[in-house]
Amino acid sequence: MTGTIPFLTISGVPVRLHFTFLMLAGLLAFEDRNDFFAESLVIMALFTCVFLHELSHALMARHFGIGTLDVVMYLTGGIARLERLPTPKEGIYIAAAGPATNFIIAGFLWYLQHYVGTNALMHEIAVANLWLGAFNLLPAYPMDGGRIFRSLLDWKVPEEQAITMANWVGRGLAFILAGLGLAFGEWLLVFVAFFVFTGAQQEFYARKSNSLMKGASVKEAMLRNFITLHHGTSIREAAEQLLDTSQQDFPVTHGDQVVGLLSRDGLIQALATEGPDTYVAGAMQRDFLRLAPEDSLEDSLNLLSDKGYTALVMADDLLLGMVTKENLNEFLVLRNFGLRRGEA
Ligand SMILES: [Zn+2]
């Protein structure tokens, strides 16, 4: 995870701080000196509550045997990254654990005040937890309520319909929130609406692509006509191929062996640092992603996203094709119209 530093590990869950979190120290420095102590205490208590919320997701996931990669704390909240997607039923429990924790904290703080007397600080933190819990229950991605809603849909409704319904509910909610925000001059609400709208859209495209890839092999989506470069080709010649063709990534060969992959970025960087008369062998990546033609496209998606959606398709040492982001998009568009390769 870029931009994060390890902070601590609690019951086996690594917690990392995002660099925006460090801005908190800066924000606190601007606080009024008189309230500095109290304000710092409130902010720290709130972040502890957000953290407990995320931790409860992680612990509930573990209850179902799902590990947590890490909990990352951002200035705007936390995110627990799970090792695998839960089933719909598990998903409901894991998502609900977060808001439930906030409600339990609020209840506990109110209960405590019966014994220690009314306390302004405890009251403030209890109210904030109620808001945290309620806000997270909004039925739109990426809020927990959205996850619960999605799990319920996946459980009861066919996939295609579930994806569309979740999208419309997310967008509808965004419009309602934006309307309320504008009507009452609450700009924070307008910001949240924007957040909900983009969240719904991203989730829609991600799930739509996933469902279109179901059952497809890498072979069905791969590019078949492309140029390869010899490892002794100069950067100057490679740059001409970049102009002559629409290709952005070039497999590099040595004899009949594929030895690397030269990307557009790698080529430009070599031009800038080494000049045009060096060889592609020095600028190519040697640890490119190899996929087999029969690999499932859906299962390869995580690997692909790590490599900017570019991979070489190889059977043993034989280069059969390439996967690129552009080609993958074309594949999805055609699949959306029900077209499949080899039917023409
Ligand atoms: Zn949550």
How would you characterize this protein structure?
- The chain is α/β, with parallel strands linked by helices and 344 residues long.
- The chain is 58% helix and 15% strand.
- It has 3 domains: 4-137, no CATH class; 158-213; 218-336, Roll (CBS-domain).
- The strands form 3 sheets. The chain has a 4-stranded mixed β-sheet with strand order 1-2-3-4. Strands 5-6-7 form a 3-stranded mixed β-sheet.
- Strand 3 and strand 4 (77-82) form a beta hairpin.
- The longest helix is centred in the N-terminal third of the chain and has 29 residues, at 88-116.
- The mean pLDDT is 87.
- The protein binds zinc ion (ZN).
- Zinc ion is lined by residues 53, 57, 98, 136, 144.
The helical percent reads 55-70%
Count of alpha and pi helical runs: 13
- By DSSP, the count of extended strands is 10
What ligands are attached or bound here?
Answer: zinc ion
SS content category: alpha/beta
Q: In what order do the strands lie side by side in the largest sheet?
A: 1-2-3-4
Provide the succession of SSEs.
EEHHEEHHHHHHEHEEHHEHEEH
Largest sheet: 4 strands, mixed
What's the alpha carbon Rg, rounded to whole Å?
25 Å
Shape designation: elongated
Q: What low-confidence regions span 5 or more consecutive residues with pLDDT below 50?
A: none
Distance between the termini: 44 Å
Mean pLDDT: 87
Strand content: 15-25%
How many independent structural domains? 3
Notable characteristics:
344 residues, binds zinc ion, 10 strands, 3 domains, three-stranded mixed beta sheet, CBS-domain, elongated, 13 helices, four-stranded mixed beta sheet, alpha/beta
